[in-house]
């Protein structure tokens, strides 16, 4: 009832309102800020990296980072067991993590959203078919299937992306299905149909914009999960193959040295945790900022 | 009679009961409804929740295919006419102005949607048309670039009316257009609908449960109960001389702001029938205060009276010329 | 018997919002006599529901009540702790809500829900509670009440659920029944039946009813006294007959003109309308809140309008009578 009391006239513009809502969202601002920072570091890695991340120098193996007594500014984060500059590898590794996150979300998002939209909009047999496919998919453990596929066809960055993309659409499908069902029952969809609009028009222009908030939230959560899965696969040696500087691979390669050169495992591990933390904060914040009841 | 839109023995059933293993049951939401909608009239369809009036509206709009029967627009089945042709001539106004406007579009874009869909004019011409129609429904043009959430319920309903009228349709199907609105706003929307009807020569199908509103705006009334039309009459006859016991109860239930009249006794039983399992015979008989021998066995047909205009489906009015002289009881 | 069961004086409800303090209810005074019906009528956002929630101490978080006096059966509750209200609510004062489906707990049977307040407040045994539940279900017109006790809310139709709600409210023989839009979600024929039921039960049990509604038709048929609310204030209050036959406040008059009455309004003619929108109640509010929409508004309306009274019929307007 408080809504009815505030006069509908004289409202600030959409952007102004969005900004005002954002101001209170400290968690979101921190998360998004971190995420943007990591993305910038990744994009500009070739300019920022002090050394070639693939250049080995066995004479300079496992130099500790600068804050250790034996460290130096030549290799601010030290070098790995093959004498490669760790900072440069970390920066290039961010590219791989983000590439994985974005690509997997695009593939899985396209599959899952299409399925969810179709099932939610048309219902009936389409819905039953989708529910069956999702149930089937959910009965497959992602990590085991990924292991099996990679073991069969060999690991590479693109294989990992493809396998994860083709496996991780389930949450997209489920969330988009229920969101679509909800929007579909709204009278504006009936009004568009009564105006003679085609199904494609209705799905793309009436339904999709209204389920976009949920889509974005699922996408962030799935991106984080995909990055972690890649790290896990790479750690097991079945993901990204050396010498690519994936963070998971870096952790894996460092495990033999963890008692003598702890930083080798701590640095990529912290980077991974920080990235996941940033993505999750952003996702949670987005849910609050652009949720339908907030009407941002 | 020049019928513009005709429903012929229209039936719509739904399979109820989700899931693979549960028994499916059939709900006859609309059950053999025949109606003529004549040019220039306001045909009200009244009834309580679950009587099938909204399902009927969706079928008339072409949004829901009938399970049986046909809808014809000037003699041609709307199934053959094509979705877009029907859309040009028949448009809806829905009950809830909060759900009928896409929250992510501006008012101008909402109203322009039918024009876009039908490829009318250039963007600039469409914009002009939109501003014209907003003006016509009494909305300032500065609202064009706002979003629905910035408008009050009454203003939103004006937008919905503008969208319905922007293609110059002949028939507007109003499904409870004022039920979600406050009294003071309701009267404004009713005034607007009446003005527009006169100015543009529109035909309305006006679906409502509010008989006072129906009496005010309608020229003819169809009363529905559990998927069937039980009485059809011009507004004057229906309100002065309701014949079906259900119509009588509905009229008696209208609470006008007249103190001293007290609360009416509708003489209806408490038991409301299960629409999935409607009573045999006349589906109203378990609640009917005047039921007699054939009511629970034979479903009464909707029979026209001697004048041929009005019709009632009730065993109290048997199909003979004598029924016009049957004694009429008033509550 | 004309003693007062509920006497509210100077009741205000403030709600903290992002944009400032919203004065949802502003300094209203109401009285409900034993065995009589007071109807509080107004449009959405006028503060009528907040008023009822404030009286029951059921305000949502963020809403704050203040009152000069809130006396129930002679006991001032304006500063009473929540515990005191818990003891009264469901016992000596009961409430019926608009949507019986959400007010009944779907996980419990009708019988359990009917018995609970009775056993809680009266310390009755299960058998006693059951007997009383059967008695009241019968009273509210439910056939074979004993069998209904084992049913769940979803097994009943809307009209039956509202009857169950009424029976539940009556379990402890309340002295005051607050009904917030009790028939709005129901069909018209059912609405008439439920209102009749309320009126009959009032006669039988002598319970006072405060009925909150937006429907002037309901008000006219059931009220002894009527309070018309607009923008958080009671703008007019009086005996039902006087208020309908001789409405004094321009808002009341405007509302009545908006409603088509078969046989009285000319068919197809223009209905009265109240142009404009309800003013914002956030921040300081001065003067007559209806002045922006009032056909009789004058500059002097920017100041608080005088309170007028004739034979227990009170209104707040610069005019003796709206022409």
UniProtKB/TrEMBL annotation, chain A:
Major place of residence: membrane
Pfam families: BPD_transp_1 (PF00528), OppC_N (PF12911)
Annotated TM spans: 25-49, 96-122, 142-167, 215-236, 256-279
Xref: SUPFAM superfamilies: MetI-like
InterPro entries cross-referenced by the UniProt entry: BP-dependent_transpt_permease, MetI-like, MetI-like_sf, OppC_N
Species this chain originates from: Alsobacter soli
Compartment(s) of residence: Cell membrane
GO CC field: plasma membrane
Coiled-coil spans in chain: none
An individual GO BP term: protein transport
Membrane-topology descriptor: Multi-pass membrane protein
Domain ABC transmembrane type-1: 94-283
Keyword Coiled coil: no
Family from the record: Belongs to the binding-protein-dependent transport system permease family.
Name of the protein: Peptide ABC transporter permease
Upper lineage: Bacteria, Pseudomonadati, Pseudomonadota, Alphaproteobacteria, Hyphomicrobiales
Keyword terms, alphabetized: Cell membrane, Membrane, Peptide transport, Protein transport, Transmembrane, Transmembrane helix, Transport
Gene3D superfamilies hit by this protein: MetI-like
TrEMBL record, chain C:
Alphabetized Pfam families for the sequence: ABC_tran (PF00005), oligo_HPY (PF08352)
Stored SUPFAM superfamilies: P-loop containing nucleoside triphosphate hydrolases
Gene Ontology BP, a term: transmembrane transport
Record localization: Cell inner membrane
Keywords: ATP-binding, Cell membrane, Membrane, Nucleotide-binding, Transport
Membrane topology classification: Peripheral membrane protein
GO MF annotation: an example: ATP hydrolysis activity
GO cellular component: plasma membrane
Superkingdom of origin organism: Bacteria
PROSITE patterns linked to this entry: ABC_TRANSPORTER_2
Signal peptide limits: none
Membrane spanning residue stretches: none
Limits of the ABC transporter domain: 8-256
PANTHER family cross-referenced by the UniProt entry: DIPEPTIDE TRANSPORT ATP-BINDING PROTEIN DPPD (PTHR43297:SF2), OLIGOPEPTIDE TRANSPORT ATP-BINDING PROTEIN APPD (PTHR43297)
Family: Belongs to the ABC transporter superfamily.
Protein name as annotated: ABC transporter ATP-binding protein
């Amino acid at each position: 009832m408080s809504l009815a009391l505030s006069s509908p006239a004289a409202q600030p513009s959409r952007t102004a309102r969005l900004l005002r809502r954002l101001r209170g969202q400290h968690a979101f601002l921190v998360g998004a800020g971190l995420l943007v920072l990591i993305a910038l570091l990744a994009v500009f890695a070739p300019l920022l990296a002090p050394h070639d991340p693939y250049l080995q120098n066995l004479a300079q193996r496992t130099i500790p980072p600068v804050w250790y007594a034996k460290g130096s500014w030549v290799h601010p984060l030290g070098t790995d067991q093959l004498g490669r500059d760790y900072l440069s590898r970390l920066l290039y590794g961010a590219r791989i993590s983000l590439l994985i996150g974005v690509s997997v979300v695009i593939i899985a998002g396209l599959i899952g959203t299409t399925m969810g939209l179709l099932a939610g909009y048309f219902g009936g047999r389409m819905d039953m078919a989708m529910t069956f496919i999702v149930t089937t998919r959910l009965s497959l453990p992602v990590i085991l299937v990924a292991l099996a596929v990679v073991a069969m066809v060999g690991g590479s960055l693109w294989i990992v992306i493809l396998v994860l993309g083709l496996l991780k659409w389930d949450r997209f499908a489920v969330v988009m299905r229920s969101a679509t069902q909800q929007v579909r029952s709204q009278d504006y969809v009936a009004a568009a149909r009564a105006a003679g609009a085609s199904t494609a028009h209705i799905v793309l222009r009436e339904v999709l914009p209204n389920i976009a908030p949920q889509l974005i939230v699922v996408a962030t959560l799935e991106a984080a999960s995909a990055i972690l899965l890649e790290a896990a696969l790479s750690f097991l040696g079945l993901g990204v193959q050396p010498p690519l500087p994936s963070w998971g691979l870096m952790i894996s390669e460092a495990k033999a040295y963890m008692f003598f050169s702890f930083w080798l495992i701590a640095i990529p591990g912290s980077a991974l945790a920080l990235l996941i933390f940033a993505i999750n904060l952003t996702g949670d914040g987005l849910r609050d900022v652009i949720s339908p009841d907030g009407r941002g | 009679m020049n019928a513009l839109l005709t429903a012929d023995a229209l039936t719509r059933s739904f399979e109820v009961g989700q899931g693979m293993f549960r028994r499916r049951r059939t709900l006859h939401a609309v059950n053999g409804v025949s109606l003529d909608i004549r040019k220039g009239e306001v045909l009200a369809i009244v009834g309580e929740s679950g009587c099938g009036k909204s399902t009927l509206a969706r079928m008339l709009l072409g949004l829901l295919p009938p399970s049986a029967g046909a809808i014809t627009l000037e003699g041609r089945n709307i199934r053959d006419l094509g979705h877009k042709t029907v859309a040009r001539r028949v448009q809806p106004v829905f009950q809830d102005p909060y759900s009928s406007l896409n929250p992510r579009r501006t008012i101008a874009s909402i109203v322009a949607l039918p024009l876009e869909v039908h490829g009318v004019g250039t963007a600039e011409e469409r914009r002009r048309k939109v501003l014209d129609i907003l003006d016509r429904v009494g909305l300032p043009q500065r609202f064009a670039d706002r979003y629905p959430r910035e408008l009050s319920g009454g203003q939103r309903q004006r937008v919905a009316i503008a969208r319905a009228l922007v293609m110059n349709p002949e028939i507007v199907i109003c499904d409870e257009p004022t039920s979600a609105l406050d009294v003071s706003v309701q009267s404004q929307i009713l005034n607007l609908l009446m003005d527009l009807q006169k100015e543009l020569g529109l035909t309305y199908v006006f679906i409502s449960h509010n008989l006072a509103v129906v009496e005010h705006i309608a020229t003819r009334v169809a009363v529905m109960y559990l998927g069937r039309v039980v009485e059809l009459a011009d507004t004057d006859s229906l309100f002065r001389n309701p014949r079906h016991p259900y119509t009588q109860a509905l009229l008696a239930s209208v609470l006008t702001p007249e103190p001293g009249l007290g609360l009416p006794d509708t003489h209806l039983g408490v038991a409301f029938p299960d629409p999935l399992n409607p009573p045999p015979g006349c589906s109203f008989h378990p609640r009917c205060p005047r039921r007699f021998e054939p009511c629970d066995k034979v479903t009464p047909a909707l029979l026209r009276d001697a004048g041929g205009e009005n019709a009632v489906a009730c065993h109290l009015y048997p199909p003979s010329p004598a029924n016009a002289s049957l004694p009429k009881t008033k509550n | 018997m004309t003693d007062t069961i509920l006497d509210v004086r100077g009741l205000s409800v403030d709600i903290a919002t992002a944009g400032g303090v919203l004065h949802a209810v502003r300094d209203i005074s109401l009285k409900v006599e034993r065995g009589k019906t007071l109807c509080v009528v107004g449009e959405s956002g006028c503060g009528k529901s907040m008023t009822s929630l404030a009286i029951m101490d059921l305000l949502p978080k963020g809403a704050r009540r203040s009152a000069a006096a809130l006396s129930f059966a002679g006991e001032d509750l304006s500063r009473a702790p929540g515990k005191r209200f818990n003891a009264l609510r469901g016992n000596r004062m009961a409430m019926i809500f608009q949507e019986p489906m959400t007010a009944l707990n779907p996980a419990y049977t009708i019988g359990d829900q009917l018995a609970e307040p009775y056993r809680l407040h009266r310390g009755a045994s299960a058998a006693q509670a059951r007997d009383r539940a059967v008695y009241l279900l019968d009273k509210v017109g439910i056939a074979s009440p004993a069998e209904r006790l084992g049913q769940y809310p979803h097994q009943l139709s809307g009209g039956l659920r509202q009857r169950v709600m009424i029976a539940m409210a009556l379990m402890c023989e309340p002295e005051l029944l607050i009904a917030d839009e009790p028939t709005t979600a129901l069909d018209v024929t059912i609405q008439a039946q439920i209102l009749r039921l309320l009126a009959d039960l009032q006669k039988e049990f002598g319970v006072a009813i405060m009925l909150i509604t937006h429907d002037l038709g309901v008000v006219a048929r059931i009220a002894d006294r009527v309070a018309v609310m607009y923008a958080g204030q009671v703008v007019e209050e009086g005996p039902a007959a006087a208020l309908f036959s001789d409405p004094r406040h321009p808002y009341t008059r405007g509302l009545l003109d908006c409603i088509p009455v078969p046989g009285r309004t000319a068919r197809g003619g223009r209905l009265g309308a109240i142009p404009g929108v309800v003013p914002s109640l956030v921040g300081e509010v001065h003067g007559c809140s209806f002045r922006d929409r009032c056909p009789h508004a004058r500059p002097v309306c920017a100041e608080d309008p005088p309170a007028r009274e004739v034979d227990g019929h009170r209104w707040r307007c610069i005019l003796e009578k709206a022409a």
